């Protein structure tokens, strides 16, 4: 897998099949990880997550917008080292105003309808991560990087 034509379908399949990602933020120089429900745009350019504004992760995102999201398809078996695919999405997060974020929220709730009440709460923030690149790891050591928009 070395061309954009080959990597994009693998990324789309992984992002469609998985519902959760680990979001890594910077907490005053200390990495901070959070398990997040997510949705990705069809063009792979953005990932959407929701969070309460009163959380540590939200404060981290406001202080430093640079993030990493880890998404994988492991099954917690020994064979995962050879069979699983994992991707790290690198980008910058920003809160989106509710009006401007309506299409992103619709995309998110199509994948996570059980989070509708959470999404409607006044303290909930729609966070759009503009993806700069994806690092796809397969067969334990095979790494391919794809820059969005390239």
Tally of helical runs: 5
- Shape summary: globular
Query: What is the share of helical residues?
Result: 25-40%
Mean pLDDT over the residues = 90
List how many beta strands DSSP finds. 8
Low-confidence blocks of residues: none
Q: Strand fraction band?
A: 35-45%
Q: What structural class is derived from the secondary structure elements? A: alpha+beta
End-to-end C-alpha gap: 16 Å
Provide an overview of this structure:
With 150 residues, the chain is of the alpha+beta class. It is 27% helix and 43% strand.
Write the SSE topology.
Elements: H1 4-17, E1 20-27, E2 30-37, E3 39-40, E4 46-52, H2 56-63, E5 66-72, H3 80-83, E6 85-96, H4 102-111, H5 116-120, E7 124-138, E8 142-147
Antiparallel strand pairs: 1-2, 1-5, 3-4, 4-7, 5-6, 6-7, 7-8
Question: What would a concise description of this structure say?
Answer:
By secondary structure, the chain is an alpha+beta fold.
Main features:
alpha+beta; single chain; 5 helices; about 45% strand; about 150 residues
């Amino acid at each position: 897998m070395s061309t954009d034509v080959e990597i994009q379908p693998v990324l789309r399949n992984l992002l469609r099949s998985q519902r959760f990602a680990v979001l890594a933020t910077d907490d005053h120089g200390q990495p901070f990880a959070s398990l997040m429900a997510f949705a990705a745009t069809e063009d792979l350019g953005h990932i959407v997550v929701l969070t309460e504004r009163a959380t540590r992760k939200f404060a981290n995102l406001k202080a430093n917008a640079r993030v990493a999201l880890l998404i994988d398809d492991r099954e917690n078996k020994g064979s995962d080292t050879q069979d699983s695919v994992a991707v790290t999405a690198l980008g910058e997060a920003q809160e989106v105003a509710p009006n401007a974020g309506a299409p992103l929220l619709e995309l998110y709730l199509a994948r996570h309808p059980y989070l509708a009440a959470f999404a409607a709460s006044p303290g909930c923030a729609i966070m759009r991560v503009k993806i700069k690149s994806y690092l796809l790891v397969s067969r334990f050591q095979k790494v391919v990087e794809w820059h969005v928009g390239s």
